[in-house]
Give the backbone structure.
Amino acid sequence: MLAGIWAEPRPPGAPLRVWRDWALFWGLVAISLVEVLLREDRAWAPLVVGVSVVVAASLLWRRTRPLAAVAVAFGTLLAFDIARIVAVDVTGLDSIAGVLVLPYALLRWGAGREAALGLGIVLIWLPVTLAAVPASPAEVVAGYGFFLFSAALGAAVRYRTGSRDREIEQVRLRQRNALARELHDTVGHRVSAIAVQAQAGRALSAADPERALATLVTIEEEASQTLKEMRALVGVLRDGTDADLAPRRGVADIERLARPGGEVLGVRVQVSGDVEAVDPAVGTALYLIAAEAVTNATRHASGATHVSVDVTTGRSQVDLRVHDDGEASTTSPPHGGYGLRGMAERASLLGGTLRAGPDPGGGWSVHASLPRTVRAS
C-alpha cells in the first residue's frame, strides 16, 4: 500500500493561476502591511513582511508545483522560527496563516512522493514553531489538528474527484460498447444481408432476369433502411439523446429470417409458444441474436446447406437455438468476432445465457436462454 501511495502520479487537469490566486496573494500582502503598521514595535518590520510576502507568493504555485511551494513557504518559516528562538525577538504575522492552504493543495494536486516529502517538511516545522512561541497542550493539539485537517481535506477531495472521473469513464465505456453492439447488430446485419442478396442477384442475372430484378429491389429496401438506422446512430452520437438504438422487432419478426435454399443458404424458422407474452426487450434481443447467428452461418459455415432457427416460449423463459449443418471446425468466426461477443452481452444484460460452439451431432449451434419477462430495476 505504501509503495502504491509513493508511486501515485499527479492528478491530471491541475488548473493554472486565476484571478482568485492573485487576489489571495495581494490580500495577504495587504493584511501584512496593515498589521505591521498597527504595531508599536517595528524594528523587525522588513523581516516579518518579507517572510509574509514569500509565504503569500508560494501560494501562486500551490497547484502546479505543490512540493516546491511547501518547501519554499515552510522552509522560510522554519528559518524565521529558528531565528526567533536564537536571536530575533519578534512575533510573526497573522497573515502567515495562509500556509494552511498548502497541505490541502499538496494532497490534492501533488504526486504520492511529493505529498510524503511535503508532509515531512510540515511535521518538521510544526514543533519548531510551537517551541518559538510557548503554547499550552491544547494549542499544540489544535496546531497539529489544523494542518492535518487541511491535508485530509485535500486527500478527500482528490479521492472523490478521482472516483467521479472513474465513474464517468465507466459510463462512457458502456456507452461505446452499446453503440458498437447496436452498430454491429443493426447496420452490420443489414449490410451482410445486402451482400448476400447481391451474390444471389449476380448468380441469377443470366438464368432468371426477373428474379434478379426482384433481388435488386430487396437490396434497395435494405440499403434505405440501413441508411435510416445509420442516421439514427449518428444523431445519438451528435446530440447525446437517450434514444432506443435497436429497432422495435420481436419474436414474431424472427420468421422473416426464413428463406428458401438455392442460390443462398436456406433458413428454416419455427416459433412455438405464447409469443405475445414475451417482454418487448427480450423479443428484440432474441431477434438480433437470431439475425446475427444466421448472418454468421451465411458468412462462415463452410459447406452448409441450411440453417434452422427454433424458438420455444415456456412459462418463465424463452429458448432460441440456431443450428447450421456446415463443418463445425470452420463455422466459428475468426478470433471470436464482435458478433458472438455482442450476442453474449445482450443475453447477459437481460439475465440470460448464451452458448455457441460445435454441435455434437455436427455443424455449429448457438443456444440462448432468456427470461420471458424482465424485472424492473
User: Anything to note?
Assistant: The longest helix spans residues 137-204. The beta strands are 266-272, 306-313, 317-324, 353-358, 364-371.
